[in-house]
Design brief:
Bound molecules: pyridoxal-5'-phosphate
Radius of gyration: 21 Å
Mean pLDDT: 95
Distance between the termini: 53 Å
Helix content: 40-55%
Number of strands: 10
Strand order of the largest sheet: 1-7-6-5-4-2-3
Strand content: 5-15%
Number of helices: 12
Length: about 375
């Protein structure tokens, strides 16, 4: 990325020679992204990240197709980038159905089928959940959408670069991804748009990105995103095995040393690097602060909702009671983690939980 911040500062839309170098770098990044998804480079539009890609997909489809209907189907466990976009569209007169999930967070396919009407223009359901890592039956949802001739968008921000994400197999028309979820830069993402899809732009202005997304492109970010895709293609499968081993070790250690802990998410159909639990009789936030003092970075619910007193809408949708959802704790395992890191969490967390439970006004030990 570095040369594109300094020496190679050309604007890719300009005519001069070093502009074409920037343009070539951008187009080769487009090829790298397309290769990871198994699609054509022309079907990739660069965005400022996952949130913009989700907004573009959802608003772009419903505005361009509102002559056909006004109904959107989504799930109760979407990231706020999708959830709040749907809430906004409800205020604009669109109807939204939020499909339930089971206790593992898997979308109810029968409820989905029953929700379809002749006014349904879009189904948007995430590939894997960011809080507890459950992987949704996207291929089956893709088939249902296709049979009913409804556009299907999936927020694949948590899966791209982590598990195989072949668009043909998934059967989606639109797919969002974000660079910083797989070691690329923040502020760089993309939306896959299947050729022939009727979609309005989200951002209006110049003729960039084949008239689909106006604005001078973030060349260093795009170059970084492309490189992250290239590396992911080489490393992804090996890393998945490594992360699941670390995750299983972490899980074993925590469940054997702390009682009254529940696993959230599906025990098998989940991302290898996501380990999410609820620890009863303790506040998630208090665990996070104590872990942070020990140099351990973890999350409770989603990063965006941390700091709010409301428990995660995802855990509540899975039927987890309020008081238990408050004790949510999520560890994300990545390229930089080692067995020693896991050992340290197993050593430190039980002490923290014991201390907090002893002070807890709600706990059985309080
Ligand atoms: N969708 C999901 C599932 C996510 O996990 C995130 C980020 O956490 C986003 C969308 C938003 O992506 P970005 O941070 O690139 O805007």
């Amino acid at each position: 990325m570095l040369p594109y911040f300094s020496d190679q500062y050309g604007n890719p839309s300009s005519i001069y020679r070093f502009a074409s170098e920037a343009n070539e770098a951008k187009e080769s990044a487009r090829e790298q992204v397309a290769k990871l998804l198994g699609v054509k480079p022309q079907e990739i539009v660069f965005t400022s990240g996952g949130t913009e890609a989700d907004n573009f997909a959802i608003k772009g489809i419903v505005y361009a197709n509102k002559n056909k209907g006004n109904h959107i189907i989504t799930s109760k466990i979407e990231h706020h980038a999708v959830f709040n976009t749907c809430k906004y569209l409800e205020k604009q007169g669109f109807k939204v159905t939020y499909i339930s999930v089971d206790k593992y967070g898997i979308v109810d396919l029968n409820e989905l089928k029953d929700a379809i009407t002749d006014k349904t223009i879009l189904i948007t359901i995430m590939y894997a959940n960011n809080e507890m890592g459950t992987i949704e039956p996207i291929e089956e949802i893709g088939k249902i959408a296709k049979e009913n001739k409804i556009y299907f968008h999936t927020d694949a921000v948590q899966t791209v670069g982590k598990i195989p994400t072949n668009v043909d197999e998934l059967g989606c028309d639109l797919l969002s991804l974000s660079g910083h979820k797989f070691y690329g830069p923040k502020g760089a993402g993309a939306l896959y748009i299947k050729k022939g899809t009727r979609i309005d732009p989200l951002i209006h202005g110049g003729h960039h990105e084949r008239n689909r997304r106006a604005g001078t492109e973030n060349v260093p970010g795009i170059v970084g995103l492309g490189k992250a895709c290239e590396i992911a293609l080489e490393e992804r499968d090996k890393e998945e095995i490594k992360f699941s081993k670390l995750r299983d070790k972490l899980s074993q250690g925590i469940f054997s040393k702390i009682d009254d802990v529940i696993l959230t998410g599906h025990p098998e159909h989940r991302l290898a690097g996501t380990f999410s639990i609820c620890v009863k009789y303790v506040e998630g936030e208090s665990m996070l602060l104590n872990l942070d003092l020990e140099g351990i970075a973890a999350s409770s619910g989603s990063a965006c909702t941390s700091g709010s007193l409301e428990p995660s809408h995802v855990l509540l949708a899975m039927g987890i009671p309020h008081e238990i959802a408050h004790g949510s704790l999520r560890f994300s395992l990545g390229r930089g983690n080692t067995e020693e890191d896991v050992d340290r969490v197993i050593e430190v967390l039980p002490r923290i939980v014991e201390k907090l439970r002893a002070m807890s006004p709600f706990g059985k030990r309080g």
